[in-house]
Description:
Radius of gyration: 18 Å
Distance between the termini: 58 Å
Structural class: alpha/beta
Number of helices: 7
Oligomer: single chain
Pfam family, one: Esterase
Signal peptide: 1-25
Helix content: 25-40%
Organism: Anabaena azotica FACHB-119
Keywords: Signal
Amino acid sequence: MNNKTSRLFFLTSISFCLLTLTATAQTPPTTPSTSQPQPSTQKVASLSYQIETYNSQVMGGSRTYGVSLPPGYAQNPQQSYPVVFLLHGGHGSPIDWFKLGKGKALTTLEQLYATGKLPPSIIITPDGNDKRGSSPYRDPEYFDGPNGNVSTAIGKELVQVVKSRYRTLPNPDFWAIGGLSSGGWGAVNVGLRNLNNFSILFSHSGYFQDKSGPANSPITYIKDVPSAAKKRLRIYLDTGSSDRDEVKESKDFSQELARLNIYHVFREYSGGHTWQYWREHLADSLTFVGEQFKTAQTASTSKNLLHQQ
Length: 309
């Protein structure tokens, strides 16, 4: 068992350095967005989150998700925003990433917005549990299976709910999905199954070969992803050095991504399979996400300027 139970940007040229511990593949092209550029944020007001519900046709009942709207959302009704999905791990819930004793994501988001490392974004924390609910004895099944079509519920249905309720940028280059532990695997598995909705995937302490078999093991089936989609993909991986199984999983997956020439980053930090580790390194993954959002926005702005000439 290899999982543990457990719009306005500055229109100047953007350069950034990805400090990786493994080689990355070629930089992928981005598909321009037709939406307006994102605003830069110099000062951030206090953030908040709330839990919302929706009727899931896919899961046959009411489902919940957490949402944190970006600063200035209510004051800028013509503004559309990027979206980040954060998946919980084993025996988890949509509030885990926001809890003070766990993810403390609002603190990280305030810091990233204030420093401009992450453009103001809509943060969504889905419920990753299947019809059986959460249990300390099993991890979420982030795939379509006998206990519910969780992958479709998150990767398609919830995406449409979010688009209908909030002002989102439609281009998948402005949509990211990530998570921790089994949620790290889930984010990659769901994201790869829904590349029309997500171009950016990230995993903290995840694994990429699932016990359910090759159909839900990204390291196995990613080679079958269409070439055009491979070029759009941007993937971030990190793992704590004492998390030996996940270190190997991430290294193996990174090697497969390199072989397929898929743009990615893998970082190994000190630490283990703990909330302290995930709290500390959420800023790293979201900084990577922010860099991809900025790159996509620059491409969009450049194309729009060419069209105006």
